[in-house]
Amino acid sequence: MTKLLTVRIPATSANLGPGFDCMGLALDLWNTFELHQGNGAGITVESHGEGEDVLPNDKSHLVVRTMIEELTNSMPFDPRHQSYHIVCRNAVPCGSGLGSSSTAVLAGLLFAGAILDPHGFRSAAGLSRTLKRAFEIEGHGDNVAPALLGGLVIVVGHDGEVITHRIVPPPTRVVVCVPRYHFMTSHARSVLPLHYSRSDAVFNVGRAMLVVEALRNGDGALLARAMDDRIHEPYRLPAIPGAIEAKRAALACGALAVALSGAGPGILAFAQENHDAIGQAMQSAFASAGGVSARYWVLDVASSGAQIFV
Ligand code: HSE
Asked: What whole-number distance in Å separates Cα of residue 179 and Cα of residue 243?
């Protein structure tokens, strides 16, 4: 099988407390996707590593679905003449709040881009088109933007365009603890109110700005005071067994600041030391208070986003 392209895309943690739907951080844990020439059977896929037992191996796989949709938007797609095989090597746990679906959406878009525009898809304009499409597909950009660009990214939609601002924070290490609990993003969004009070909006706006400054400057003391939220965590944390206790346990063990990672169920803790102890404390809290087992990862922030190898 001839390999045409490989892309590596990092995990991401979105929201970062008060920045609901507007900011995310790339983390040094990567999914790798290979695009090979196929054998005349349309687009086929295999998955290894995280999710290999549950991910579909047909065209309902998110990479394949995204790729076919992009290709058919631009040209008639004939599986007899355009056949591809995709190999996914996944390190990012699925359904964890670490942006695994965003890695799949981006891989599908980049593969389609490489086929439709082999010379332009890696250019600044090509990548900006990819981001715009990923934003449209996801409905928000706080996973796809940091996954594509790396570092800390602020991202908002504006008149059909996507505005991003990327910051590379000083070396920052986090712990992410993920319980074995099924908490679908669609459900996590459905538990949120439709309207918020002005005081809750002001609470979040100010803190979101402070979190950006704290991360930009590596200011742990500021992060500790600023990372709090009234838009989503008060509604989501109680719905995840053991999450409130895991957050409390991480703080008691010396974490500077703790947030729900994306829509959860993973919990993200910032710390200067004792990362393993913090991970173990969260695991124990999930087990004792929530009755669920959990895994944890100690991860650095990834300063680079998606990597493309042709
Ligand atoms: N900002 C999104 C949410 C991230 O919290 O629902 C998950 O896709």
From this structure: 9
